Amino acid sequence: RQASIAPRRFLSDEALLVHIKAVHRQSRGSYGRPRIWRELRNDGVRVGKQRLQTLMQKHGIRAKGKKRFKVTTDSNHDLPIAPNLLNRQFTVAARDKVWVGDITYIPTDEGWLFLAVVIDLFSRQVVGWSMRADMTRTIVIDALRMAWFKRHPGKDAGLIFHSDRGSQYASDDFRNVLKDYGITASMSRRGNCWDNACSETLFGSLKVERLHGQHFATRRHAKDETIAWLLWYNQSRLHSTLNYLSPMQFEQHWQIQQANQA
Which residues touch 120 (CB under 8 Å, ≥6 apart)? Predict the structure, then answer.
């Protein structure tokens, strides 16, 4: 294997540019210099960070810019509010200890498509999701059920589920599902999006990296693009908070370490 990699260490600018553009295109323009540099190294292409930055600037290769999106939360209700147990402690030591839920929306010619997700804070993996034409409690229950049956954490796992104060999460039906699963509810403070920053970041990445600029004639088209991005995000997208591993790679490394320690 070393013999196949070594000749690629001293690539000309023209040859290196081909690799840079390929990585940038594969990420659909979402990767900037740090992730492109990591991906090139993973592929056996050695290049200095300064040389990479110079080439990218010269040829106008950059990550898509972040945009702000509207909040969908409806917290004007008289339903019970859970305490903020998470309190912005976004670093978690093991999987299935803290899940985060949130809802966003995607415009189509048929009307809004709403997306609810469940994120495991340990690896930032999206472990559950649901998409519907309405934003009722059913969408968050479906996303939670998907996460539960995918992960099987067990009712004695001490799992916390954190969300905003939206009526969907505060509803009797959703709280009953949490109770059935042995999950403790946690909610953000009123009007404070930073208490649920990880889900806001995920939605921003989804919209900038895959959905922004696209025209969706149907909800089905929007669903297909969203699911494709979620799968890519979990399996392949390099995450800066995970030492530039994808969520699934991060969990795999952790599981190997746990096995070795045992």
Answer: 95, 96, 98, 99, 127, 147, 151, 247
- CB atoms near residue 13 (< 10 Å): 12
Cβ neighbours of residue 255 under 8 Å, at least 6 residues apart?
none
Query: Please, is 73 exposed, middle or buried when counting C-beta atoms within 10 Å of its C-beta (0-12, 13-18, 19+)?
Result: buried
Give the pairing type, strands 111-120 and 98-108.
Answer: antiparallel
**Residues present in the chain in total:** 262
Question: Alpha-carbon distance 251 to 223, whole Å?
Answer: 26
Per-residue HEC secondary structure of 36-59 comes to HHHHHHHCCCCCCHHHHHHHHHHC
Residue with tokens 């994808």: 246
Distance CA 3, CA 207 (A): 41
Per residue in 171-195, pLDDT (tens digit) is 999 999 999 999 999 998 765 556 6
Q: What's the pTM value of the predicted model, to 2 decimals?
A: 0.75
Structure tokens at 85: 């147990």
